[in-house]
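Hey, I was hoping to borrow your eyes for a little while. I've dropped the whole record in just underneath, so have a look:

——
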Amino acid sequence: MIKSIIRNLPKWINNYGIVSDVIISSRIRIARNIDNIKFPTSASIDEKKLIIDKILDAFKKSNLISEFNLTGYNLLDLNDLERNALVELHMLSPLFIKDPYYKYFFIDDDGEISIMINEEDHLRIQCLKEGFSIKDVITFIYKIVDKLEDYLDFSYRNDFGYITTCPTNLGTGLRISILCHLPFLNYSGKIRDIISDSSKFSISFKGSFGEGSNPVSSLYQISNSTTLGKSEEDILNTILRFGNEIIRIEREERKNIMDKNRSEILDKIGRSVGVIKYSNKIDLDEANEILSWLRVGAIEKLLNVPVNLINQLIFKIRPNLMKIEFNTTIDEEIDKLRSDYLKTTLGGLI
């Protein structure tokens, strides 16, 4: 199943959801730890094994595996390319694969649910859906969390809430994030003021890979920055309000710029088309920028290209996914293969 998801991509990437012109996807992630067992960062080998055993037993007893069509994997059963490809698809975290020993994870058939055991916390449960669908996703994911709570004694304190390795996750342990494409706010420079002001609302802006990553080609991951002292409903409403505001101002900026600077935007789209048609090599940064402007062209109906195809390509062109697609491990070949792949995939459409 892993190989199929890597080659065909998770369902949330293939589908075009609600307001996906601005918000590509919604993710809910919940962190939990079993009481009276050390965090994975300081646990012994025997304790890490115990964590896996206890959590796997809870999954079996709760029937979650069959209910959500989950398949479990020891991280060591995957090769290095497959592990990194799952990070590129947002299914596993960079931290989780850094040390593959005593790690276990579940994924569902659609590649939307991933559950990591022995990441930073004992349990990291996440679900991704296309578009701005955080209300649906949070209801969905708490079905898993609530069932596990019947079989696992999660670490909880009345004054701190759920106990987590990182203090910023204390309380609910809930992180809600949306992956946004904001080319016009980026183009006008207004995104800088929005990012600067976002901390006032307990909101953080990161790159598309979250913590430690930088935004590229107008892709931003927007999430709540704190969980302590806030209820799940508080966090959900904060992201709903901020997400709706981001949609409004990006669309407004798109209209203004297309009215005033249409020829310049058409030039950027046209140049992007030209690079794909005539280049021999395209590196990742250039490809990201090209696809960002092609996505603008698709949304504005200036190109006869489905937006969800551009979404697929944004992920497909990443290095480890390219290596798997073309059965190579040679880094020097990737820029040429990426150029050929974009030319072949988009050739009849641009």
In short: The chain has two domains: 2-253, 262-346. Residues 86 and 303 are 30 Å apart (CA to CA). The beta strands are 23-32, 70-74, 104-108, 113-117, 123-130, 156-157, 161-162, 174-181, 203-206, 219-224.
